[in-house]
Fold:
Amino acid sequence: MNKATLEKVFEYASKPVQGTMSRKLRKDVKIQVNEGEVYESATLFLGEEFVRVTSLVGGLNVNTYYDWEKIASVRTLGPTE
Structure:
């Protein structure tokens, strides 16, 4: 999967955070990268060389970094309408 396609998936699942380059997951949308951890209420940063996912775990902000070239799949999860 190419970077442009992956960017569209991340953009679909999130919305811009005003005044920053980050994106917040949309309400009721969860995301999973490479069939790993499922993130909800996370903030994404789509950099040139990496994607950073910031999530709250046990009262701590946890940053997870993904190399664009190592992302094989992105799954979005949300309620049915």
Residues 6 and 22 are 16 Å apart (CA to CA).
